[in-house]
Amino acid sequence: MKTLGFICVLILFLTGRLSAQSTISAKDAAKHIGEKITVCDRVFRESNKAFTVGLYLGDSTGHYFLVSIRFKKQFRQAVPSEYFNFKGKNICVTGIINKRSYMKVDDPAQIKIEPADKSGN
To answer: Of these four, 46, 54, 62, 89, which has the most CB atoms within 10 Å of its CB?
Structure first.
């Protein structure tokens, strides 16, 4: 019986460790190519194209991370149009980092907008 209890505790512990994801800033994204990770930083530029929105996180000095939001039909219907006004906001994006610090987003659940701090920044 003790063995069964130990095995259950071990499984719960390992499951929790495997499901935990790292959170990094935009400048560190290039070190995590191919990993599923959460990148949190401020959007300094937004590029709106026909079916894609490009979000540049980090800073404009070359230490940035590009998030590409593709507009699938269910994505457009799932979020209001004002959702796509990210410039100046702190956001967290979860997904697999592709080469050159780039992530594709197909699901609105991959993006979390961080609340503004008390100083209004």
So the answer is: 46
Distance CA 24, CA 2 (A): 40
Kind and range of the H or E run holding 98: none
State how beta strands 23-24 and 36-48 pair. parallel
Structure tokens at 23: 């959170």
Among the listed residues 28, 26, 43, the one whose alpha carbon sits nearest the alpha carbon of residue 121: 43
d(CA 58, CA 39): 10
What average pLDDT values come out for the chain (121 residues) when binned by 10 residues? 52 44 87 93 85 84 80 62 78 89 84 71 48
| 81, amino acid identity | S
Phi, psi dihedral angles at 17 (to 5 degrees): -70, -40
